[in-house]
């Protein structure tokens, strides 16, 4: 009886949490036998779980494929407050953006574990506890993260109970519940406490007997699935379950004000400034890239006389928005990729991946922050279309407010280009952004005295508009010869810009 109860309690908790035996348990409790170790742990876990009303421990969500941690910038709910599916619980600052974390089900906030602005939290770390009703909130007044990590141990027990680790919830856009064949006997069905309650209130019985696939994270059945479930149409819907249904985008939730960073700490002759999560994540990625990627650098001078003449001619025929030098340089970089496609590639440990589309991250800033929006398919699109995309990205950066969440911001392309010429910098060797193989830095545009290649002119030298370009390459993907070929092709397209219109 006790073992059966423990198994049921463990099954219910497993739908909310994963767990891993602690080193102490491995060394002591498991010295007897694996069977007794497992039974003792299950019974201990059941005793711990039963000490609290039915609840759910919510971990820091993973809001992007590369997100490893985040910072809660603001809470939109308070302890004891009820919320509905779709409500914004909190705003999470990731390495790329500030994203709203929406509730997947109805519930009540029992405990907020991590306060806004508390710093960077690894994905999966408990941040809040939710319950089904207001009456259960008081039981979690003294709930601590430690209590969500492991059940309380018996002072007389031979070993502590194993620690519990919260799973990483993934926000998923809600879609209409699909009805399918009923699960096989004994098959695990994951559902929220509210969904279980609604199923019984509506007379559906146990959720495990329903022909339904949940629309919550990981296929979890939520309250909305039960509300939309119609037993009379179950067979008909089951036949159509595999047909994709259009998803209506939800209206954007109001933005929560980000939590201010801690005040600077003034010391003896220095001041310490706290960094946002995005800055720490960027620093970590740059550090990793510089360590892992064997960089080498190539530099070349570009004559912009012909390119500037073409730009002037094109702009005389364009009414709305002109073509910039950067637009033409983007097209020249894409054209060079067509000539030397081996540079438009990534190192994949056991093979090299060469891309068909040239997607260029362009580094732009607003004086305080740098962004690298991606301009898609630069090689196959027209010059004006590329120019419009770049102008739109630059306008967003200048406005600053929506830059982290705008389309293309945070995405990684196949190549990166940065122009520091506006600061008077003549050359720069950029750090490659993994998994890209190359990055191009452009220096200041300046007038220089150069040899005159006009054989009909009496002047030996002439004044030309020049720029210096530096290409950083990943030697694993692009060797010196390939890098030189690409840079030569880029120079040819810049100095003969009519090729960009072909």
Automatic annotation (TrEMBL):
Database matches in InterPro entries: 2-oxoacid_DH_actylTfrase, Biotin_lipoyl, CAT-like_dom_sf, E2/Pdx1, E3-bd_dom_sf, PSBD, Single_hybrid_motif
EC number: 2.3.1.-
Gene3D superfamilies linked to this entry: 2.40.50.100, Chloramphenicol acetyltransferase-like domain (3.30.559.10), E3-binding domain (4.10.320.10)
Cofactor names: (R)-lipoate
Boundaries of every Peripheral subunit-binding (PSBD) domain copy: 190-230
Annotated stretches, region: Disordered: 145-169
Alphabetized UniProt keyword annotations: Acyltransferase, Lipoyl, Transferase
EC class name: transferase
Residues covered by the Lipoyl-binding domain: 55-132
Keyword Nucleotidyltransferase: no
GO-annotated molecular function: acyltransferase activity
Domain of life: Eukaryota
Family affiliation: Belongs to the 2-oxoacid dehydrogenase family.
This protein's name: Dihydrolipoamide acetyltransferase component of pyruvate dehydrogenase complex
Source species of the chain: Cyclotella cryptica
Taxonomic lineage of the native organism: Eukaryota, Sar, Stramenopiles, Ochrophyta, Bacillariophyta
């Amino acid at each position: 009886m006790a073992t059966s109860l423990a198994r049921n309690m463990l099954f219910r908790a497993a739908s909310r949490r994963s767990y891993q035996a602690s080193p102490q348990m491995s060394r002591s409790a498991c010295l007897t036998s694996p069977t007794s170790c497992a039974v003792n742990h299950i019974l201990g876990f059941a005793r711990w779980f039963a000490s609290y009303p039915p609840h759910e421990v919510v971990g820091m969500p993973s809001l992007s494929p590369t997100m490893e941690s985040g910072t809660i910038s603001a809470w939109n709910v308070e302890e004891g407050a009820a919320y509905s599916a779709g409500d914004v619980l909190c705003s999470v600052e990731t390495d790329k953006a500030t994203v709203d974390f929406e509730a997947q089900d109805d519930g009540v906030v029992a405990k907020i574990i991590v306060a806004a602005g508390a710093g960077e939290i690894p994905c999966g770390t408990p941040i809040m506890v939710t319950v089904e009703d207001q009456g259960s909130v008081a039981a979690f007044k003294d709930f601590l993260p430690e209590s969500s990590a492991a059940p309380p141990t018996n002072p007389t027990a031979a070993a502590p109970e194993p620690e519990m680790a919260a799973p990483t919830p993934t926000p998923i856009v809600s879609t209409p519940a699909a009805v399918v064949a009923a699960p096989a006997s004994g098959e695990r069905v994951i559902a929220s406490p509210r969904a279980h309650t609604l199923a019984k209130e509506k007379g559906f019985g146990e959720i495990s007997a329903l022909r339904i696939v949940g629309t919550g994270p990981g296929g979890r059945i939520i309250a909305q699935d039960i509300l939309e479930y119609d037993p009379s149409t179950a067979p008909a819907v089951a036949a159509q379950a595999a047909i994709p249904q259009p998803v209506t985008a939800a209206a954007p939730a109001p933005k929560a004000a980000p939590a201010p960073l801690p005040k600077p700490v003034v010391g003896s002759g220095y001041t310490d400034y706290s960094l946002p999560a995005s800055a720490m994540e960027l620093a970590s990625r740059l550090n990793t890239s510089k360590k892992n990627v064997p960089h080498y650098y190539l530099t070349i001078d570009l004559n912009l006389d012909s390119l500037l003449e073409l730009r002037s001619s094109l702009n005389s025929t364009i009414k709305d928005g002109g073509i910039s030098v950067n637009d033409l340089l983007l097209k020249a970089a894409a054209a060079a990729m067509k000539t030397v496609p081996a540079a438009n590639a990534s190192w994949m440990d056991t093979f090299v991946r060469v891309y068909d589309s040239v997607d260029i991250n362009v580094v732009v800033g607003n004086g305080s922050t740098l962004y690298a929006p991606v301009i898609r398919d630069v090689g196959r699109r027209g010059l004006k279309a590329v120019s419009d995309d770049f102008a739109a990205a630059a306008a967003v950066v200048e406005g600053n407010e929506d830059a982290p969440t705008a389309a293309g911001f945070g995405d990684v392309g196949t190549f990166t280009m940065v122009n520091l010429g506006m600061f008077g910098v003549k050359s720069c060797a950029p750090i490659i952004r993994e998994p890209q193989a190359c990055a191009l830095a452009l220096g200041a545009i300046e007038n220089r005295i150069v040899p005159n290649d006009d054989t009909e002119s009496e002047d030996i030298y002439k004044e030309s508009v020049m720029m210096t370009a530096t290409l950083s390459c990943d030697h694993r993907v692009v060797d010196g010869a390939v890098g030189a070929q690409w840079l030569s092709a880029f120079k040819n397209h810049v100095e003969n810009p009519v090729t960009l219109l072909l």
